[in-house]
């Protein structure tokens, strides 16, 4: 648990688990074990630390007065976000030169002819999309990481969609584009 949370905060959390102190402690240990397994299954290191982050966030919500009907389900939903944050952070810490070398090594096996064929196929498949769909894909992916969230929210508002609907729409378009490109390249 973080240093910002007091013993009273933790006791309040236990009280939310169960009014009986012994049962609350058992539920806490079971939930802790479940969360640690959850993180292990998703190939996260420092499972104990990530579990503490989840508990800190759950306790803060309780302190803020949020009513949590099913604390286990709520904790798992927070754990999903913690996993995404962990994965993003892990990707940022990867040695970019090492990744670049690996990609360059793999690409060196592709002939220039194959690369050109893939590019031509991608262009053909993009051309088969309506202007509206092609523009959507380009606007969605044509952004820097620092402005990505704001730009995608803005795009969703412009299209009168929520962000999740926009993601789904783009994901479907991308899948169609990938299928078309694979079919065109004969792979």
How would you describe the overall organization of this protein?
The chain has 187 residues and is an all-alpha fold. It folds into two domains: 7-92; 111-185, Arc Repressor Mutant, subunit A (Orthogonal Bundle), CATH 1.10.10. The protein contains nine helices and no strands.
End-to-end CA span = 50 Å
Unreliable parts: 94-103
Structural class: mainly alpha
Rough outline: elongated
Give me the strand/helix succession: HHHHHHHHH
User: What count of domains describes the coordinates?
Assistant: 2
Give the assembly state of these chains.
single chain
Q: What proportion of the residues is helical, as a percent range?
A: over 70%
Q: What is the total tally of β strands?
A: 0
Main sheet record: none
Strand content: under 5%
> What is the count of DSSP helices, taking H or I runs of 4+ residues?
9
Overall mean pLDDT score?
82
- Rg on CA atoms, Å: 23 Å
Helix and strand arrangement:
Layout: H1 7-17, H2 21-41, H3 47-63, H4 71-92, H5 96-107, H6 112-128, H7 131-141, H8 148-158, H9 163-185
Helix pairs in contact: 1-2, 1-3, 2-3, 2-4, 3-4, 6-9
Descriptive keywords:
single chain, 187 residues, mainly alpha, Arc Repressor Mutant, subunit A, 2 domains, 9 helices, elongated
Question: Brief description of this entry?
Answer:
The chain contains nine helices and no strands.
């Amino acid at each position: 648990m973080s240093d910002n949370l007091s013993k009273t905060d933790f006791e309040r959390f236990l009280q939310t688990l169960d009014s009986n102190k012994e049962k609350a402690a058992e539920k806490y240990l079971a939930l802790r074990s479940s969360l640690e397994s959850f993180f292990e299954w998703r190939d996260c290191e420092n499972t104990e630390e990530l579990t503490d982050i989840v508990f800190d966030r759950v306790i803060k919500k309780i302190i803020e007065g949020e009513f949590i009907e099913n604390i286990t389900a709520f904790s798992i939903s927070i754990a999903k976000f913690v996993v995404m944050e962990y994965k993003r952070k892990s990707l940022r810490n990867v040695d970019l030169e090492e990744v670049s070398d690996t990609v360059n090594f793999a690409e060196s096996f592709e002939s220039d002819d194959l690369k050109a064929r893939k590019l031509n196929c991608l262009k053909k498949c993009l051309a088969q999309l309506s202007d509206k769909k092609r523009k959507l894909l380009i606007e969605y992916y044509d952004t820097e990481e620092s402005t990505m969230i704001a730009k995608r929210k803005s795009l969703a508002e412009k299209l009168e969609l929520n962000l999740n609907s926009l993601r789904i729409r783009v994901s479907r378009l991308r899948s169609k584009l990938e299928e078309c490109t694979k079919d065109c390249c004969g792979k």
